[in-house]
Cytochrome C biogenesis protein
Amino acid sequence: MTNHRRNTTRHALYELFSSMRFAIGLLTILAIASIIGTVLKQNEPYPNYAFEFGQFWFQAFEQLGLFDVYHSAWFLTILAFLVLSLTLCVLRNGPGFVKQMRSYRDKAGESSLAAMSHSQALAVANAAPEPLAAYLQAQGYRLRLRDNPDGSLLIAAKKGSAGKLGYFFAHIALIVICVGGLMDGNLPLKLGQLIGRVTPETRDIPQSQVPAASRLSASNLSFRGTTRIVENKSADVTFIDSGNGYLVQELPFIVTLKKFHVDYYSSGMPKLFASDIVVTDKASGKRTEATVKVNHPLIVDGIAIYQSSFGDGGSPLRFKAWNLADTAVAPVPLQGVSMANQPLRANGKDYALEFGELRVFNIENVGKPGAADPTLLQRMHDAREVKQTKELKNFGPSISFKLRDSLGQAVEYLHYMAPIQQDGASYLMAGLRRTPAEPFQYLRLPLDDEMGIDRFMRLHAALRNPALYDEVARRATRKAMAGGVIDQQLAQNFGDSVKGVLQRFADGGFAGLEKFLDERVPADKRQAVAQTYIKILQGAVVDVMAVADEKAHASPLAADAQHYRFLLDGLVASSGLHDYNAPVFLQLDGFDQVQSSGLQMTRSPGKNLVYLGSILLVLGIVLMFYVREFRLWIRINGKQLRVAMTSNRHNRDLDRDFQRHLDAIQQLTRGS
């Protein structure tokens, strides 16, 4: 009884796995999964998914393996079951197909032939089989003659039997494609992760310190990883993203980047980027030199090396460091390296300076507001601008960095190196933001006649130096009296007002003045007093600049509209420095660009199987849909002759072919 039950269960499983419905169900699930894998960008860093979908859906999608569909355990399991199902289907139905292809069905009797839809009996005087057989062979038929016990002769002919091979090719093609998918899906690696033999590394540590449990040997069946190599540097590993961490994949060779090349379109998009590399085999020492371009990979030892990206590789940087606590002091030189960290001590406090990526090109559309960073455009353009023209402009090199204090609090900055022109004036742009989610807020420092910020820094220092206020007030009062704005009685009050406005501006910029007015001035008089303060400040700034220049033994500023605009812009910039929240201002003075190349290393042995399966699938479809099987019987029984014909597809062509063959046979039998 036990054996019978076991045999019954085995037979039921065999019937299930070898059924067409089971295979179609698996194919449907794979098709849906493929749609998800196409719509949802795969293999992105997990923080990107968490930010986009939120924590709830991120966890749900992570559990379902939707962030790496084609390498997920359930996807590979379905592929394995589909291979099993299709293999059993071929083994189960294959012998019957082969038998049908080889069979001529030469045992058909009169009744079965007469029952066919295309069948007709002819009365003939005498029908010789030789001319009929010759005619069928000339029409491309293969035939077999059979003498029946009742004395009749049957000519069984067929052609197009190869069309049934299409079913074999289609099923085998799917098997081959799925096997290729299993190979490239790296099933052994998934099993290793399942049993805990392989665990992704989540720490940001040098690859040489990554433990063995997070390293894969060079004999790994399949992998797809990325490697970032700096010019004149080498790498012998690639990194594979794996959930919240990564795996280090050993390579059988060493890749050295000799030179990276990049060309740009006028829009700022890369036109061409390529890497001159040298690949050195670890075992033999064989060197292979090549230039890797996009869509032009180098294949070494079955591993394809693709050009995938590029970026900054750690460029030496040169800065002028302005002490914002005393900008009258000359700046000191500061050296740095992009993509690196270094300590910074300023005004008795310790900071960590964390440099980001150096960008040599910053192409923005300055013709259409909203096409680039809106905050930058609002600073650079009138908010009422509505022209829809497209004007691309290169804003030049920029460097981003974070300044982190001893408590771990950091502010991110973005400084441009080249002057930016607006309405005939030149500015140096500097942006800051306190969280990555915020847009950059930009500070615009006016440049002097020598295209530097030295005079502005001198003005900024003077505006914040109370020791100069008495001299500034005297000069402002003298000019006001000379112009008839005030008399002798108001001179003292006017001078005090000048010093008061300068002090409040030094304490908080325009925001400080506004706060003072809100606290001390009634609301109905606030606007009038504010206008008076602004006029005092705009007039006094000329004297502030003159006093600062005299103290620095610098040539005085020319008294014209252009330079007065410089002073007004200086007031705006000096006010903005109150929100800059940094002890120093790092002016990018120069750099030596060092580029890095992002190379993708791919070993995909299943790729060739997928190509082979695709060819077999196309061949199978062609055979199934374009090769028709015809079977024709001629039964000769004395003075009666019956012609019957069938095909795997019944259409008008079959009706026409049957009539054509019937007419030809009548001619042949009439002639005999």
Summary: Residues 368-389 have pLDDT under 50 and may be disordered. Residues 316-364+391-450+589-595 form one domain. The CA atoms of residues 631 and 646 lie 5 Å apart.
